Structures are given as structure tokens and as C-alpha cells.
Amino acid sequence: MPTLEEEISRRRTFAIISHPDAGKTTLTEKFLLYGGAIAQAGEVKGKRAKAATSDWMEIEKQRGISVTSSVMQFQHNGFCINILDTPGHQDFSEDTYRTLMAADSAVMVIDGAKGVEPQTRKLFKVCALRHIPIFTFINKMDRETRDPLELCEEVERELGIDTYAVNWPIGCGKEFAGVYDREKQRILFFSGETRGKKVNSMEVALEDPTLDETLGTEKAAKLRDEVELLGAGRDFDMQAVRNGTLSPVFFGSALTTFGVEPFLEEFLRMTTAPLPRVSDQGEVDVFSPDFSAFVFKIQANMNKAHRDRLAFMRICSGKFERDTEYYHVQSGKKLRLSQPQTMMAAEREIVEEAYAGDIIGVFDPGLFAIGDTITVPGKKFRYSGIPTFEPEHFMRVSPKDTMKRKQFIKGTEQIAQEGAIQIFKIPGAGLEEVIVGVVGTLQFDVFEYRMKNEYNVDLRMTSLPYDHLRLIESMDCHPDEIVLCTGAAVLQDFRDRYLLAFDGEWSVGFLTKHNPGLVLADTLSV
């Protein structure tokens, strides 16, 4: 029977990040295919295409985009792999940021024709702040792409990280024939292109004269020259990879599966086992026998039949056992986590045990919040908080049918607790209407869709002029007496804290000048 250390050491927990449409969800599907978790990969787009496994929300299947992070666990070559597939669209960046807090490493997918795109830069910065290893997969080599050397140089220039090409593409577009493995000094030719299926490969040494016959003399010579040029670059440094200062680069096509299997094999070999986490009482040893975890995501209504709510936990140390008593630090309550589950997007499986590095979902009766810590009784440390992001768009929202007030309150509160939106109220007013704040406007569409389909409530939504929100740290008067400028309002969150919403940073000067004693926080705290 494996020891605790052996079980934890074989865990790999990583997020997949990219700009929208770079192929992130398609790559996830192919990982699941090679791991034996699915028999046929689903494409993300296309009217007749099978929906991607990781896109479980109905709106995701309809629009062909990921709007919420999904969690998938599968076994492959002795590893237990936890994949966190994140939304690429910038409007859902909050969900992505929170998910990255639960990852030990990241796979950054880049479109070979477009290179480094705006959302890639944003997500990379979050990874860099945590110094987690970042592996680059340059995708869509089955299409016409930019020069591979130019792409590597752009990653270094734009993101400030060194690169090392682990393999090298042989052509692109219709002429993409495979990749050259630099360490093993072999060429992998791919054949049997069938979308959604595994592909075959054959090996040919770089010096083999049959290479000229297979590629043609000119292409073979070009490949040999490029490989020689790569040899003059920097050496591979595993420590730099694990420090997050060197990104191993792989080339391939997630759609046709060219290069995916060698990438997965090398990635699992290079990436780390679960890393220790920082708490308010110092670093927590991942191999400690004491179970601990933090909540990084809450999702309601994944199961239409039960309308339940799951809290997703990243296990940070020790071993989780079903029907064991644990301690919820924030509430000070002891609890037994009900029906612990591992995930395959919306599919679930009850688990008896799980280890550091694993992601589990537990039934949430309304107790958990994002960032909460769960430990064994007697331990009261808290893991570092997950940041709350300032909303940039606001709407006044109320139900069209006033008879559905209860459903309206329940829906808005539950979706807000997931972190998908932030809700506020006008001080002294009832809950017949709320102010909804989001980072990106597409979140309004998802919110409206979910309220209609999950809570049967049609909404009346009116846009508001605010684009900034600040927490009031202190004030010398009652909130009703604050002197406001045009386009500003006092709001209250559901923790009864007062905030100021306003239009434009210039308003801060007016508000502080006309309200002596008013102190505004720079950011929203958790």
C-alpha cells in the first residue's frame, strides 16, 4: 500500500491558461483522451460538434466558450492529475485568478499565428506573482503560423521569461509533419489525422538519410540547421523552470493531436508534486499528516436534478478521509464534509479519501465562502486570502415579476457567493432590487441567463454610470450625510460595510475634499 508521501508525490495539479480561442479547452480534451478519461474528444465549436467535456454549463455549450473554471481529475502513467480549465475571456478573469491560486503550475497555450495576446499577458502576471512553473504550448501548428523562433522571442520579450524549446516543429499548416525531440534527439512523425482520435507516431534519427526522402532534401536541411541554431542558445535548467523564470516550450496542434502526447509526457516528468502553502502561521508542510484545505470556488446548480451547491477545495496537506470530523476556521465549527466528490467537469464520483494536491467538491449548506480554511480540530491557522477584484460595470437589477422576490433574492445571493458577481444594496432600502457589479460585461449575460434558467426569474436591468468602487475605511458622519459628486452613490454590501461607487478617479479628490475624515481603501478586501 502506498505511503502518504508516495500518494502526494504522484499528484500533479495545474491550470491551463490562454487568450480566448487559443485552443485551451481543446488541449484539455486531448489530455483527457490520452489519460483514458474519455474515448472521443469533443470540439469546442461547430453547430454539430460534440460539446467539450470541460464546458458543462448550457450557456458554454451554446456559445462555444468557457465561462467558468472546471475541474477534472484522471490517472495517467502512475500520476493522479488534477486539471483546472479556466475561462480565457477577460470578462471572467476573476474566476481564473481564483483558480490559479489552487494550481501548482500552469500550461500557457499560445496561438501560433497570433503569438502573445492581451489576456495571456494578464494571466501570466498572476502566475509570475506566485512564481509557479509555466509551460508553454504553441498551438495550431496545423495552420499557417509565425516563425517558431520569432514566437519564442516574443514570449521572452513580452512576458519577461526565458524560454527553452523542448521540441521543434517540422513545418506548419498542411506541411506540419511532426516535431523534433531535442533531448532524445529523435523525430516524431505523425500519421492518421482524425479529429478527436489518438494519432500514431514513428521515430527517425536526425542523421538518418531516410529523413531526406521523407521530408525532402530542402526541408531536412532546414530542420538540421534550425536544430543546430537552437543548440547555440541557453541550456536547460530545471531549477529555473521550477522557480518560474524559464518556460519549456512545446509545439503542436491540439485539434489534430499532433504533439500533444509528447508534451503531456514531458510536462508530467518536469512539473512538481504539490507545493507547500503559506498561512498566517507560516508555511504548511504538504506532507504533514494533518489534513488542511482552502475553498477557491463555489458553484451552485451543477446538478439540475438536485439544485445543490458545491464548494471546491484544494487540499494543501495530509490526507482527507470521508466521514472524519474537520474544523471550519472562519465559523469556528466542527463538521463532517458531506459527499466528498472528485470531478470530471459536471460528472462526479464520491471519494473515500484524497490527498494534498487533489481538488474535491463538498456539499455546501451555505457555510463556506471563497478563501475559507478547513483543518483538523485543534489547528486554527488560515491560508492566505484570495483577492476580491474591483467591479468596473454596474447595473440596477430587479425581478420583472414582483411575486418572485424570494427566488430573486436566493438567486442573486447564491451567484454572488460563487464570486461570479458582486451584489450591493442601497442603504435603508429593501431587497426588491440590488446593485450588481462585475469586472466584465459578459458576466451580466451569464447572470441573466442563469437567473432565468436556474431560478426561473426574468430580470429588469438598468445600466449605472459607476466604474469604480472603494471601501469606506472610516468617516466622521453618517453615510446619509456624505457629500456626493455627480455620478456617485453610497452602497452597502451584504457584510454591512459601506462603499462608494463613482465615475472616474477624479471623483476621489472631490469626495475626500468635501468630506473631512472620509478615508477610502485602495482595494476591496476579501
From TrEMBL:
<dbReference type="GO" id="GO:0006449">
    <property type="term" value="P:regulation of translational termination"/>
</dbReference>
<dbReference type="InterPro" id="IPR035647">
    <property type="entry name" value="EFG_III/V"/>
</dbReference>
<feature type="binding site">
    <location>
        <begin position="18"/>
        <end position="25"/>
    </location>
    <ligand>
        <name>GTP</name>
    </ligand>
</feature>
<dbReference type="InterPro" id="IPR041732">
    <property type="entry name" value="RF3_GTP-bd"/>
</dbReference>
<dbReference type="InterPro" id="IPR000795">
    <property type="entry name" value="T_Tr_GTP-bd_dom"/>
</dbReference>
<dbReference type="InterPro" id="IPR004548">
    <property type="entry name" value="PrfC"/>
</dbReference>
<dbReference type="Pfam" id="PF00009">
    <property type="entry name" value="GTP_EFTU"/>
</dbReference>
<dbReference type="GO" id="GO:0005525">
    <property type="term" value="F:GTP binding"/>
</dbReference>
<dbReference type="Pfam" id="PF16658">
    <property type="entry name" value="RF3_C"/>
</dbReference>
<keyword id="KW-0648">Protein biosynthesis</keyword>
<feature type="binding site">
    <location>
        <begin position="85"/>
        <end position="89"/>
    </location>
    <ligand>
        <name>GTP</name>
    </ligand>
</feature>
<dbReference type="Pfam" id="PF22042">
    <property type="entry name" value="EF-G_D2"/>
</dbReference>
<dbReference type="InterPro" id="IPR005225">
    <property type="entry name" value="Small_GTP-bd"/>
</dbReference>
<feature type="domain" description="Tr-type G">
    <location>
        <begin position="9"/>
        <end position="275"/>
    </location>
</feature>
<keyword id="KW-0963">Cytoplasm</keyword>
<dbReference type="InterPro" id="IPR027417">
    <property type="entry name" value="P-loop_NTPase"/>
</dbReference>
<dbReference type="GO" id="GO:0016150">
    <property type="term" value="F:translation release factor activity, codon nonspecific"/>
</dbReference>
<comment type="similarity">
    <text>Belongs to the TRAFAC class translation factor GTPase superfamily. Classic translation factor GTPase family. PrfC subfamily.</text>
</comment>
<feature type="binding site">
    <location>
        <begin position="139"/>
        <end position="142"/>
    </location>
    <ligand>
        <name>GTP</name>
    </ligand>
</feature>
<dbReference type="InterPro" id="IPR009000">
    <property type="entry name" value="Transl_B-barrel_sf"/>
</dbReference>
<protein>
    <recommendedName>
        <fullName>Peptide chain release factor 3</fullName>
    </recommendedName>
</protein>
<dbReference type="GO" id="GO:0005829">
    <property type="term" value="C:cytosol"/>
</dbReference>
<keyword id="KW-0342">GTP-binding</keyword>
<dbReference type="GO" id="GO:0016149">
    <property type="term" value="F:translation release factor activity, codon specific"/>
</dbReference>
<dbReference type="GO" id="GO:0003924">
    <property type="term" value="F:GTPase activity"/>
</dbReference>
<keyword id="KW-0547">Nucleotide-binding</keyword>
<dbReference type="InterPro" id="IPR032090">
    <property type="entry name" value="RF3_C"/>
</dbReference>
<dbReference type="InterPro" id="IPR053905">
    <property type="entry name" value="EF-G-like_DII"/>
</dbReference>
<dbReference type="InterPro" id="IPR038467">
    <property type="entry name" value="RF3_dom_3_sf"/>
</dbReference>
<dbReference type="InterPro" id="IPR031157">
    <property type="entry name" value="G_TR_CS"/>
</dbReference>
<comment type="function">
    <text>Increases the formation of ribosomal termination complexes and stimulates activities of RF-1 and RF-2. It binds guanine nucleotides and has strong preference for UGA stop codons. It may interact directly with the ribosome. The stimulation of RF-1 and RF-2 is significantly reduced by GTP and GDP, but not by GMP.</text>
</comment>
